[in-house]
Structure formats: structure tokens, C-alpha cells
Amino acid sequence: xxxxxxxxxxxxxxxxxxxxxxxxxxxxxxxxxxxxxxxxxxxxxxxxxxxxxxxxxxxxxxxxxxxxxxxxxxxxxxxxxxxxxxxxxxxxxxxxxxxxxxxxxxxxxxxxxxxxxxxxxxxxxxxxxxxxxxxxxxxxxxxxxxxxxxxxxxxxxxxxxxxxxxxxxxxxxxxxxxxxxxxxxxxxxxxxxxxxxxxxxxxxxxxxxxxxxxxxxxxxxxxxxxxxxxxxxxxxxxxxxxxxxxxxxxxxxxxxxxxxxxxxxxxxxxxxxxxxxxxxxxxxxxxxxxxxxxxxxxxxxxxxxxxxxxxxxxxxxxxxxxxxxxxxxxxxxxxxxxxxxxxxxxxxxxxxxxxxxxxxxxxxxxxxxxxxxxxxxxxxxxxxxxxxxxxxxxxxxxxxxxxxxxxxxxxxxxxxxxxxxxxxxxxxxxxxxxxxxxxxxxxxxxxxxxxxxxxxxxxxxxxxxxxxxxxxxxxxxxxxxxxxxxxxxxxxxxxxxxxxxxxxxxxxxxxxxxxxxxxxxxxxxxxxxxxxxxxxxxxxxxxxxxxxxxxxxxxxxxxxxxxxxxxxxxxxxxxxxxxxxxxxxxxxxxxxxxxxxxxxxxxxxxxxxxxxxxxxxxxxxxxxxxxxxxxxxxxxxxxxxxxxxxxxxxxxxxxxxxxxxxxxxxxxxxxxxxxxxxxxxxxxxxxxxxxxxxxxxxxxxxxxxxxxxxxxxxxxxxxxxxxxxxxxxxxxxxxxxxxxxxxxxxxxxxxxxxxxxxxxxxxxxxxxxxxxxxxxxxxxxxxxxxxxxxxxxxxxxx
Amino acid sequence: xxxxxxxxxxxxxxxxxxxxxxxxxxxxxxxxxxxxxxxxxxxxxxxxxxxxxxxxxxxxxxxxxxxxxxxxxxxxxxxxxxxxxxxxxxxxxxxxxxxxxxxxxxxxxxxxxxxx
Lengths: 798, 116
Ligand code: SF4
Description:
The complex is a heterodimer.
Chain A: H1 5-20, E1 43-48, E2 57-63, E3 66-72, H2 91-94, E4 104-106, E5 112-114, H3 117-135, E6 140-144, H4 150-164, E7 169-171, H5 178-187, E8 205-209, H6 213-216, H7 218-230, E9 235-240, H8 245-248, E10 252-255, H9 261-274, H10 280-286, E11 287-290, E12 295-296, H11 298-305, H12 310-317, H13 321-333, E13 337-341, H14 343-346, H15 351-365, E14 374-377, H16 384-389, E15 397-398, E16 402-403, H17 407-417, H18 432-437, E17 451-455, H19 459-462, H20 466-475, E18 477-482, E19 494-497, E20 506-509, E21 514-518, H21 531-541, H22 555-569, H23 582-587, E22 592-593, E23 643-646, E24 663-668, H24 684-687, E25 695-697, H25 699-704, E26 712-716, E27 721-728, E28 736-740, E29 770-778
Parallel strand pairs in A: 6-7, 6-17, 8-9, 8-13, 9-10, 11-23, 13-14, 17-18, 18-19, 24-28, 25-27
Antiparallel strand pairs in A: 1-2, 2-3, 4-5, 4-19, 11-12, 15-16, 20-21, 21-22, 24-29, 26-27, 26-29
Chain B: H1 2-21, H2 33-37, H3 47-53, H4 56-59, H5 64-68, H6 81-84, H7 88-92
Bound molecules: iron/sulfur cluster.
Residues 49, 51-52, 54-56, 79, 83-84, 86-87, 217-219 of chain A line the site of iron/sulfur cluster.
């Protein structure tokens, strides 16, 4: 381990001091055990972790009406009582002195100053009404989050689409899961996986790609590890440009240059069919080969795949041909193969195609609809699935993931919401990137969106290509609801202090279709309020209290009313949660997996399989399913019960290295931090382990550039730059660099560099791949800042 | 030279006092723990970092601060409350003063003997 000079100096002083008194600085000078070490609380309240899409069940320890501890819920089916570093430390930031506890309004001098709730809400309603009158209903947008509760997202979505008649509703899942949604819709016909985490226990081959599971979903990784420990015959294949700790437990690592994995997936498919390892009967019965328009024969598909011969693909991708062949054999012949992936496939300009190609592998081998065999997308955020995908809180969706553009779907929702026919706009709204591009000042005629309500997310740090979008956020009228000051509150005209999850309660739905309820454990600090209350108060002030009647002060009551409204709207869809009443969710220690059509239904382990999936017996579906079908894709748009094997072309990244920008840059998580670091970075115990972003570089590249450990470099893309220290490690392939995404310090915010090129279908940006150059600017510097924005009036100079 | 000597003496006093009260013996500043703790010139057992690095805790990102706390709540020898958040079921079965480290080798974190 190399150190900076300051650290060396500090250490040598400390070492000599310790040596002089004969104290070894070790764990041997241990404090004797004085107590039993039990956690002292008044009560434990059931809930779910606030962070990742794993959806770990927790108990929230409350003492003297404050949250003082966290522990895993042993009865939760997601985590069986285990928690990772983030989940176990939630109580450590809830009472941080930086918590926002009073509404703030920006005054004429540009300073945020405290205001009453009435004043803040009246101002918001007045501004929104004024903009809607002057610039039309779509001049006011909503930008939500996969971290709001389902009840909150549903309420905002209903207010905008049913109240304002505007589809200008987006959320940060557009930036993380949209390609998975479009992948499931186009390949299978319905969003979200067929299987569940339980498949980890029965799979015989696990294909992990585009996911550093060990850091991004640590408790699932623990589960996988445990399975491998108990059954070493489980084959694990990891396909990634970085050899992370996830790859360390793999039997086979498929290295790839960023963006070239589509060729590897095609090549695996080719090897499978060439060797006759495919499941011909499954393909004939349950799949069609298509390019989205025409259908093709297996021979035509094989001919298409033949351009992806393993030897040719090895040259394109840096993935050895032998490894591709081995992966193909294990994938096809294991008996039960499961794939998992996350942002590495989704945050791509060809994210939907990448998703399609993974589904292809499952469909051609029949690895679908049986225990241990599934094509399973991991979700990044804790409630992107339940709160945004299922409630349809994106600009093109309606509750139940139905399409805005579908007249029948609009009619169903209008009826359920008891609103006039034609209220819901038939035209989908803009995607997130378009939305922030269209945001601007009142007098800017090129920017049709004048105001935006931003809830539980931090786009001024998390949007790609920040130099393009920050001026728009500065110019538009921004209302931001959050628990801490963030890069986005720095641009806000009104800041609303939000209650934290455990101060309001609500439902989160994780990666495996499981909805779990968190009880309200404590009151929010100061004047902080639940987002559902904020939404309902705005609705009331804008004349929509009939549509959103849950505007009382009791958050759990409001949540229950919103939830009950939501499950009524989606009752007849394949995502039905009609049986998951609030009472049941409150009582359940493990939550409920949809489809769940009735109160006596236990929830669903596997979709599309008769005997497991209750949709086979639901009116509207059962009529179209043949009586002898044991597996059937009842969501097939063509009504044939088939899934689509997509004959996609090959496409690499939107931006690839050249002479001027010779390196690939990729970005992602580290285990200690969450998203833009505004919560986790306020926990010293974990922030210490990741106090700043850095540039990870392979030793070969470092030596070519004459870089030493800790040297400061400038990393520049066509859009912007970062200044940060290098960390020389053999993780990524030579030529591939990595910067984690959590640092709030402007100089190290990686999204100044990232590409905002989007996938043509999902409109998800290509965060994962940019072309960059590096310039050494000096020797090591201490940048271990654990930087947070503490002063609400600190300026964001960009 | 004089400055270094004063600095050494001050740090020495601080270290001695801190050890006496069971606190971390020096200002942790914002530095990553393993920077000091893998340096044999500073600590006598740098191998604990190596051991941890091979453990399942390292693979799932459970770092020093998770068990040992930070400056304000530092525990040289973590008690079972440090384990309970993540291993609630196992801690519930560990009664009285019995501590997890009594069975599980710390830093390598072998699984429970009964389970092997
Ligand atoms: S794995 Fe995810 S859900 Fe589970 S405790 Fe960690 S952050 Fe929370």
C-alpha cells in the first residue's frame, strides 16, 4: 500500500511515539469486556432497508423516540437477517446536524431563508398554476425517484396524469432501469423478472454480467457465495471489463472492452446452436425469432449469429475464444442457468439490445420457467420496481406498467380514478434527459418547461453530462424535497424538508417483485414532513383534493389510502397486488410477491408457469391461455403465448477511444456509499473507507504515463473534467479506467465527464462508457475530505 | 528537529492517554484505516489487514469502521452489538456475556464451528 507524503510523515511520527513507550498499536491492547454488548432499545419496528434494490428486511431500533440501531429481520426472505454496511448504519445519519428541518424559500438576494409550510406550499401552488396558465399544462414537471415509497410515487403520478392531464412525470429509474424495462417488454412482453431470489438456491450455473454484485448488492452476493460454498459444483461465470471481487468467486471470468459484450452474448448463442446444445422444442413452442417486425427461422438466426464466431469476437472484445466456448457449454448444459445483471447492461446506448441478448440465451436453451433457471435483472434502487415501474411513474407509463399511448389502458385508468374520459394525455411526455434539456427560465422561449418538483433525488449531481444540464436547473423554478442539502438544493427556489423513510412508513418493492411495508417508527425532526403529505397539500391547493383525498397529518393513514387506491387501479393487470392489503402487508414479516390476486393468495414465486402463476386463472387472461399449456407467455402482444428471440445487430458504445481520448472510462458504485453520497457520506464509520473519488488505473497504463500511486491527474472527456488522485490496481483491463460516482466535491463528480447519449428505445443514458484522456498535474495530495454540503447557502459554482 | 521532537512527545502522550481509556490511540483524521494498519512501521500486526482482505467481510465490504466504530465510538474489541445489526439471528442465540469473537476467529471470520 503506497501512501501520500503527509500520511507517511504522520505515520512515522505516530510510530516512533508509540514505539518509545513500548505500545504496539495493535488489537492486543484490548479493552476488557465490561458488558454483555447487547443493543439497548425500547422497541424494534419492522421495516425495509432504505438503500439498494436487494430489499433487505430490517428491524429499526427505537429508544426514547429516536432511531438508535438497525438489525436484519431473520424472517425476511430477501436477506434472512443479514445486512450490509449501509443497511446496518442507517441510524447514524438520521440525526446528522445537516438535516433539513424547515422549509426554505430563496429570497430576492438569492439566499435560502426559513419559511412556514403554508408560505412555501402557497408559493409552489401559485407558481405552478401561473406557469400552467401562461405556458400550458406541460410547463410544470415532476421528477421523482426509485427511493420514494410506492404510495408517494403513485400520488404524484396520479396528481400529474389524472389531475393536471400532463405526462411530464419522470424519475431517476429512467437513468438506471429503463433499459431493463424495455428489455423485458420487448423480449417477454411484461416488465420484471419471472423468477425470484429463491432461484439462487437451485441454479446450477450463474451468469453475472454488468454487475459488481459484491459491492452493489452485497447481501445477494453473500447469498450467492453461501450457495457456492455449500455446493462448489455451481458454476459462476462473470462477464465484466473489471475483475472485481465479484469475479473472485467465479469459475470463469469473461473480460471485455466496455460496450463489446453484445458480440460476446451473440457468440455464446452461436456456440450453443452450432453445438446443438439449444432446446429446439422450447424454441418452437414458446419463442419466435424476430427483428421486431419480421419473423425468422432458426437457420436464418444461426446464419445471423455466424458472424460472431468466437475467434473473431475474441479480437473485437479481448474475451478469449476458449472462454466464450466454455461459457456457452456451461450456460446451455447446466440444467438450470440463471443470469443476473444490472447497470453495466442498462446504462448503455444499446442497453435494451444487451437485455434482449441475455433473454435470448435463456429462450434458446429453455432456461426459463423452472427452478434455478431465469433471466433476472437486478434493480439498483430500493423502490424502482415497486414505486416507479409498477406504478407507472414515468412519462410513457400508467399504473400497472401500462402504456400511456394505449387507448384501452388510458380508459381503464380514467375509469378507476373516476375522472373524465380523455383527461389523460395520449402523448407520452419527455424522458429525463429531454426533460432537463427543456427546463429553463420564464423568458427563455426555447425552454418549454418552467418549473420542476424534484423529490428524493439529486439530479444536479446524478445527471450525465452535467455541464449541459446545470444551467437549466439554475434557470428553472426548482422545488426540491430532500432530507439533506445536496447539489440540487443549491439550485432550488424552494427547499422542502422531507421525513426519512422510518419517520413516515410506506411500501418498497424490490428486485424480486416483493412489496414490503415499513412502519413509521419515529416522528420526523423539526418541521420535516412526509412527501405524501407534501403531494397532497399541493393537490389541495391546486384544486385536486377529490383526486388525492389522503391529505391528513397521519402518514400511515395516508399511505394506506394511497396504497388501497393503487391496488384497485392495478387489480386486473398481471401485476396485481389486490390481495396485498395494507393490513396484510403490516402483518407480514416477509412481504408479498405479485401477482397476488386475492387475500388468501400467498404471492408468486414464478411467473408464466401454470400452477405457480395465478394469472393463468384471472379473467382477461385465462380465456386466451390453452388449457394444456404448462408454460405460456400470456403477455405476448401477438397473442401466441410466445417470447421474442431478438435478432439484433451488433453495436458498440456511442463513444470509443481514439488518439485524442485514448481510454475507456467506466463508473459505478463502491459498497460503502449510496448514489450521490448525501446519506452514507455522513456516516464516519463507513465514509472513512471511501472518503473521496479516485481514478482506478491498471499498472501497465500507469507506468506508460509515468504515474505513481496517489499522483493527481486531470481526466477529461469531450464534456468535462475531473481532478483526482490515481489508484493503481489490477482491477480493470489495461486501457479501461474507473471512477466511483459518490463524491460530492465538484472536482471529483464523475458526471461532469459521463456521456448523455441515450438508448434509442429506453432513453437511458450511457453512463458506463466514455472516452477520456489523462494528464498528470502533480504528486499526491490529501483529498480524503468526506465532503458534504452543510450550508444550504453554499454556492455551486460550476 | 526540535519541532519533530515536540511533535513526537505530544503524540506519545496522546497515544498513552488514549490507550489508557480504550480509545483510538491517535487522531484518525479522515484517513482510511488500512493505510496505517497495513504498515508494519506503525502497527505490529499488519497481517490483520491481509487476513481481513481474504475474509468474506472484505468481499461483502464490511470494513474496519463497521465493527470498530470511529473516533467517537471506537471499540478496540467489538462486542456482539457490533455483530447484531448484520447477524441478528446468530446474536439472538448468543446468550449473556458470550461474545461472537469467542468462537469466530476475528478478521478471518471463519463460520461457526458447528456449521463446518
Ligand atoms: S444489501 Fe442493499 S438492501 Fe441489503 S442492507 Fe445492504 S444496502 Fe440495504
